[in-house]
Each structure stands twice: as structure tokens, then as C-alpha cells.
Amino acid sequence: MKLATLKDSTRDGKLVVVSKDLTRCSEVGHIARTLQAALDDWAHVAPRLQQVATGMESGSQPTMRFHEHDAASPLPRAFFWTGGSGGFSGPRNTVPLADDASGITVTAQVAVITDDVEAQAASADAKGAVLLVLLASDVSVGNATAVSTFSPVAVTPDELGEGWNTGDLALLVRRNGKALDGGEIGRKEAAEIVAKTAAIRPLMAGSIVGTGLCKTSCPLSIGDALRIEMNDRSGHSIFGAIEQMVETRRK
Predict the structure, then answer these.
(1) Predicted TM-score (pTM) of this structure
(2) How distant, in Å, are the alpha carbons of 13, 47, 207 from that of 161?
(3) Percent of residues in the chain assigned helix, strand, coil, to nearest 5
(4) Bridge-partner residues for 188, per DSSP?
(5) Cα 199 to Cα 203: distance, rounded to the nearest angstrom
(6) Stretch (H or E) spanning 163
(7) d(CA 132, CA 115)
(8) How many CB atoms lie within 10 A of CB 101?
(9) How far apart are alpha carbons 171 and 169 in whole angstroms?
(10) Which strand (E) or helix (H) includes residue 125?
(11) What is the DSSP string of 18-37?
């Protein structure tokens, strides 16, 4: 299934289930108000969310139009993020930087949202703890991350199909319309990275781990436009797109 968080008047937004083609969504506040609430009780909540997803595809579930620009990052804030911590920018928000900022770079990669993971967990246990997959973008100035952003939609690993096993799904990164090379994804590597992250400290449900898979880095300048997405084997967007414009911060 595919999940998103729509912006509202709260910090954590409201959880919706999104159709496979990313055109429709269904509100699920009666199941879980936020994505973090769903992750906190995933074993019980996930099957109910899956029923909604199935009903959407069969036409038996009420839906409304899904617009990616209405989405926040799936987790607008998280307990742990290997690229930093705190709140995250929306996937269609601008990136405001000082007009004299230098050494601006963006790093795009695949990230995963985990269940609880005990410290020093085995790779097999870490694989089972990967609940959702999403795309991540970190814009840095010098060596410091200025803005972290995630794709409009987070998906369960099964939504990636065989590409999650064979590693032939490529990250598509465009700067000012020009395509940059991206790597490929793979489930085994993701599990190993989660296990490595938990080698020293346990992870809480809702932790976001940057896998380093499909990782692409490039320099940026004020005025640059970014688009980051990943398509399935049929050429359809899996996560929706991160679209960011680097702008001068208003004084």
C-alpha cells in the first residue's frame, strides 16, 4: 500500500491511503490519525489500512483527489533520521538559503521507515523491521544539512515489486531538467544498513534510515530546480516526486 500525510493545521498532518496510480486517496483518521500513530501500533493498524487500499482499487472505498502539492513529508517530523533530526520540509516546498550561501549540494537516496529494532539486531530481523520505503533529499550548505525532504508518498516494500529483489529500479534526479545518474535499489542492502544503524543503539518505530542506495550527490546554486523520483518497470511514478526550487531566503 501507499501512504501519505496531507498538510493541515497540526504539526503531524493527517494520514491518508493513496491509490497505486497516485491520483486518489482516502482519509483514515478512524484507523490512525497520523503516520506515527500507525507505526506505533503497526501490527494491528497495517491490516486495516491494507483493507482500505484494497477497497480503493476495487472501487468500494470512498476516495478524493490526491494532489502531491498538498502532501507533507510522510513523517513531517521523526524521532530519528540518519541525515539529521527534527522537522522536515514538504516535497514541494522551496529551499530558502542565504543569498551568500556557498558549497550548496543535494544528496538524494532511498530511505526506509522502521519498526522497533533492538540494538545489535541480526540482518534478518532488520529486514522484517523495514515497514515503509521512501525517497529522501538532503540539501546541505558546507558540511551542514540545511533542509531534509521526503517523497510525497511512502510505500510498503511489496509496492516495489521484483525491482526490490533484483535491484533494477533507478533513482531519477534532474537538476534544471537535466538528468543525473542514480544508482539502483535492493532489499538485502537495505536490511544490512538498518542492522548496521542499530548496531550501537536501538531504533524506535518511526525511525528513518538513509540506506545510501541509489545515492546521488550534486552541487546546487540559488535558482536551481530539482526533481527526484523513481518509476516502476511500467514507467509509473512509485513515490511521487520531490520538486524543489533553491531560493534566496526572504529577510
Answers:
(1) 0.93
(2) 29, 19, 23
(3) 20, 40, 40
(4) none
(5) 10
(6) helix 163-166
(7) 9
(8) 18
(9) 7
(10) helix 123-128
(11) E-TTSSEEEE-TTT-SSHHH
CB 129 within 8 Å of CB 121? yes
Spatial separation of the C-alpha atoms in residues 106 and 174, rounded to whole Å? 11
Residue 134: all three cell numbers together: 521512501
Cell, residue 137? 533529499
In the block, which residue shows the cell 510498503?
Answer: 156
Each residue's pLDDT expressed in tens, for the chain with a length of 251 residues: 999 999 999 999 999 999 999 999 999 999 999 999 999 999 999 999 999 999 999 999 999 999 999 999 999 999 899 876 668 999 999 999 998 889 999 999 999 999 999 888 877 778 788 999 999 999 999 988 899 999 999 999 999 877 676 666 788 999 999 988 655 555 557 778 888 888 878 899 999 999 887 788 889 999 999 999 999 888 899 999 999 999 998 76
Q: Which grid coordinates belong to 167?
A: 535491484
Question: Cell numbers of 69, please?
Answer: 502539492
What are the start-end ranges of the H helices in 185-228?
187-197
Place of cell 545489535: 120
Nine-digit cell string for 40: 506505533
Residue 80, C-alpha cell as written in the block = 530519528
Half-sphere exposure of 58 (CA within 13 A, CB side): 8
Assigned C-alpha cell, 92: 514541494
Please return the burial class of 66, using the count of CB atoms within 10 Å of its CB with bins 0-12, 13-18 and 19+. buried
- Which residues, 6+ apart, have CB-to-CB distance to 146 below 8 Å? 95, 97, 139, 140
Burial class of residue 228 in the structure, from the number of CB atoms within 10 Å of its CB (0-12 exposed, 13-18 middle, 19+ buried): buried
C-alpha cell at 155: 510505500
The answer to whether 189 and 221 are in contact (CB under 8 A) is no
Grid cell digits, residue 138: 538532503
